[in-house]
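User: Okay, second chain of the day. Same drill as before: sequence in, structure tokens out.
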Amino acid sequence: METTLSLIVRPTEIDVNGHVNNAKYLEYLEWGREEWYETANLHYDTLKKLGMQTVTVNININYRKECRQGDQLTVITRPKSVGRTSFVLEQYIVNAADELCTDALITSVAMDTVTRKSCPVPDPLRLLFE
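Assistant: Same drill. Structure tokens below.
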């Protein structure tokens, strides 16, 4: 399952170099992941009822092209791979000209809400990787 999220770069997201601050890209990607979970009907409360939540443990990000105030961007999120307790989402940010601005691999772990330890990825989440 692939999702897209559209956004416009706001003035408060620009740094002294006149382009999007590097930390904002991480926020954009997080919004994209939330859209992915929401579209899959895996809201926070749904995961909690399964006795788990997801925790980001690694982000590998490449900044390819600068983005500026007013740019229209699209965050694309899709599943890449799933293991026993972890999974990887691949994400891309493209501009209105469909130029790649950022790409990232995000590794998350399924965490038991009681023990706060890793647990098997539940089937409703695992099925999204098939």
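Helices lie at 22-39, 44-49, 123-126.

User: Thanks, on to the next one.
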